[in-house]
Amino acid sequence: MSANALSAVVTAVSSTRDDTLTVCAISALAAMFGNVLHEGVGHALVALVTGTTTGTLSTVAWSSAHDTRLVAAGGTLVNIGAGLACWVGARRDNRASARVRFFLLIASAFNLLSGTGYFLFSGVTNFGDWADVTAGLKPSWAWRTLLIVVGAVAYYGALRLVGRALGAQPAQRIRGLMIPAYLTAVSLACVAALSNPFGPQLMWQSALPSTAGANAGLVWMQYYVPRSEAPAECEAITRTLGWIGAAVVAALVFILVLGRGVTL
Questions:
Q1: Which residues have CB under 8 Å from 45's CB, separation 6+?
Q2: Phi, psi (5° rounding) for residue 16?
């Protein structure tokens, strides 16, 4: 690319103005998508398919009388699989609108960061899904060390993947997308967790670590974008009432229904 062409692309990108409300709406939908995959598919559905007859599902946990190691591992594995699928879609679907591509990108980020971050979280705290998966395995210090190492490496890899899908763009625009997405996910998770049926402590033990902790890499995403690539397409995310309305309706159901717990 010539210097003049590169300058023109950079100027176009820097002048892009994304609508923050629509960015937050898309991010809310992506965050709820990742949460439902983790708790509803990875835990609840796996439990019901593998022999559990009933249990309680909320935004912070799944609980039944006969949860197995597979059920405990299912949430993370589903998140990672979904994150990779969304990453492929974000990289390849150039015909989609900027809003759809951003949904795929931020859904990939939420799923991959939550999934890989869980290894690290359980290894450090000896709490959560992967503490349940490795419970009783000896020596425990070796398993916890393995979780920490795998988690750190996988989390860094997830950041690099998301940065690659985002493409080379000015740091100002990256922050304008990633920070509202991060704050939206954290706020939504905390509000939904307030009325969960397992006790308020899970807001601190589960909701915050899985959002504020796991997704913290979004705040520094500008440093994981490969600068060697040509500047990415810079179509703005314009205000779209459809995305905003869908996010409001979904958030009400997420908070008032799933947040309070559903017996399956």
A1: 74
A2: -65, 135
Nearest partner of 243 among 24, 9, 4, 10, judged by Cα: 24
Radius of gyration for the chain, computed over Cα atoms and rounded to the nearest angstrom: 19
Residue written as token pair 């210097």: 3
Report residue 138 as tokens: 């000896």
- Kindly report the number of other CB atoms within 10 A of residue 91's CB atom: 16
Written as one string, the DSSP assignment of 71-133 is: HHHHHHHHHHHHHHHHHHHHHH-TTS-HHHHHHHHHHHHHHHHHHHHHHHHHHHHS-SHHHHH
Percentage of the chain beyond pLDDT 70 is 91
Q: What is the model's pLDDT at position 229?
A: 55
Q: Are 248 and 241 in contact (CB under 8 A)?
A: no
Which burial class, exposed, middle or buried, applies to 198 when counting CB atoms under 10 A from its CB (0-12, 13-18, 19+)?
middle
Could you tell me the pTM of the whole model?
A: 0.89
pLDDT digits (tens, 9 = 90+) for 185-238: 999 999 998 888 887 777 777 777 878 889 999 999 999 988 765 555 578 999
67: tokens are 């949860």
Retrieve residue 20's tokens. Answer: 């923050």
**How far is the CA of 179 from the CAs of 143, 186, 216, 220, 230, in angstroms?**
34, 11, 9, 9, 24
Q: Are 37 and 78 in contact (CB under 8 A)?
A: yes
The whole-chain average pLDDT of the chain stands at 88
Structure token digits, residue 52: 């559990």
Confidence (pLDDT) at 39: 94
